[in-house]
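input
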Amino acid sequence: MSTSESLARGAQARLSFSRDSAIQNAASLFSMPEPSVTSATLRVVGQSVTRVDAEAKVAGRAEFSADRMAAKDLLHGKTLRSPHAHAEIVSIDTAKAEALAGVYAVVSYRDAPAVPFESGDESGDAPVAPVYLLNQTVRHVGDEIAAVAAESEAIAEAALGLIQVNYRLLPFVLDEQGALAADAPSVRGGSNLAGGAPIEFSRGDLDRGMKEAELIVEQTYRTQSTSPVALEPRYCVASWQDERLTVWKASRNVYGDRDKLARVFQLPHDRVRVIAAYLGGGFGSKDETRLALITALLARRAKRPVRMGYTREEELGYGKWRHATTTRIKIGLKRDGTMTAIDAASALNTGPYAPGYGVASRLGHGLTYLYRCANARFVGKVAYTNSPVAGSYRGLGAPQAHFALESLADEVAERLGIDPLEFRLRHCVGPEGQPGARVTPVDQLIPAQPIEGGVPFSSNLLQECLREGAKRIAWQPRPAGPRKRLVNGKYRGMGLAACIYKTGQSQSSALVKWRPDGSAELFMSISEIGQGAWTVLRQLVAETLDLDFKDVHGTFADTEMTPFAHSTSGSTTTFTSGLAARKAAASAKRRLMEAAAKLLEVEAEKLRLRGRMIESIEDPELAVPVSLVIRRQPEQMIVGDARLRAGSTTHIINSFAAHFAELEVDPDTGAIKLLRYVAAHDSGRIIHPEAARGQVVGGVVQGIGYALMEEIPMDPDTGAPLALNLDSFKIPNLIDIPPIETLFIERPDPVGPFGAKALGEPPLVPVAAAIANAVNDATGVRIRELPITAEKVLHALRLQAS
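output
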């Protein structure tokens, strides 16, 4: 066993994650602010260093999940999927497929472990059935029925055609409103309401707030299902050896994958290893384990390694969608725009399996926390349907929430005769947080997306985002409402939307090892999805250890080599995992100084680290190379570690943004052309400016697709998705993307690592609302359903004219 393997395995015992101890750790650590650091003292943080993955990707050496070829006896897998939206498998005959030359394994529900992949719901009068790896009841078009492993993909594909399945068709329901109706067919054998009851939270006295209102405005908004369309379709390789399972896959959560694989195959955790390759984009969709489970099942049956992946059609249709939503918002106001009450209710289409509670919670936070209001309530109903599975997608419920809330904010401003920018400057939540009383006990972490009042933000620069973004786009006040300006025969308008988004609050851990040559190595279970995570985390370590960036190495996302982390998701990487990396580096530095103090016979507090030298503060001539200190240790290394649940017991840690769009609308066709876009963000200190700009530009482009074109219509007769290739599923191309200007209102947050806050997801969140408000300014029509297509705009213009 190598030194690194020995180190990592020891770390598993040392860093086995205890939730209670982690919370205590976090509470003691993050109730105090980060040490004061000024930009002038930073050497690596704040610099656009060359990304650690750049050379490998440019040279073609970066190994993505589809590139992994485990062994010369590798087999290739294919999945048979249901053509029906809801059906029971009466019989399945795989004999002809098994007899085909070159086929080594065929599996169906009869062969899958009798261990639920997803737990059932025991709440309510009619418990919901658990979900197994391959189910006798299929619940959406594309649900997995069987799988084949063969010598080639062509043979595996041919074998699928030989499997004979008889079905008993069942009634189905595709949309969230229909699924929640009293007479809806049951998707999971019980209530279609996930959890058996709505998700509900509130602050203040809603009824009193509505009674105090001088104006009440109410509207309903709808958003569509859409696919993340990651550039790389996901692949997986599974291999068994002596009842040990190794899986290489496109994974953003190697420990989550390991736990599910171990549970389904009834293995101890230390007999399952998951390794994440480079990811060619993910945007939330690559948090599923079903592909790995089926691949591993085939590999165990065939007794050979198996490689299986998604086609583009499978990636688009069955790789987890964004939740479609129907949201009703009712706001009570004084005549000056002060909000007295916010009452919001959303229904979410989650498909047949994933319960979607986290998405509903995020949606509720976005609807009730952006504007200062003492009285608020959110009711979220997550509906099981026979549409394909919905799940994590960049921003979770926040884009849906902001489209509704920020569209209504403009409608409210127009009713009150207030300019939309001025309305937000007056009434968006300030640094002091929401009015009201704190609910969370004082010794516990504040939720990342709270609804309670009485808790200030660690930092909130939304006012500055609004003002600076407005300056950059040359905002023109319009207290009288939409201007409907004609410029060269086209309607022209501007729109804006504000954004609030939680900064990552999750679990993470890290190891930092001093090497014998004086360099350092970071061990973390964080995936590189393309966002630059491996670079940013190494920057934080280099800055903490006073090393050059090139002198910090990294080992990532391998459950046998790297300690626990929750997931590379939810805008948690820079904040949560960054805090863990910095704390582990500080631990390694402290232990190094203690070892050097023994060699130099000086108190550790009287030593300082300068590059690869340790010297006495009082007598700089008294010094020793870091490498010598390391080599004098019994194992020739010094290791620092950290584990934590990031957050604060005293403050809410949120990121903020304000987006501005300028566009024109063709009055004859309804076609929309974006002319300019400005995105102003409060994400604390920016660790890597170029990577940060890439996050913002990429998020805005995704938001443009969500706002204007992306949609997967469903066949109402068959329940099949109808846009499963990039010809019919439209995403933005170069002619759709305007110049995008990024502004960072850069003031360090007192809690984040070197002052950083979340940035990964916020850039997508307000885009649809900003565009919808610009369309309204240009034309005077209000589109309350995404996507805002030319057809919808033209129809609205004709209604307006008539």
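quick obs: Confidence is low (pLDDT under 50) at residues 1-6, 8-33, 120-125.
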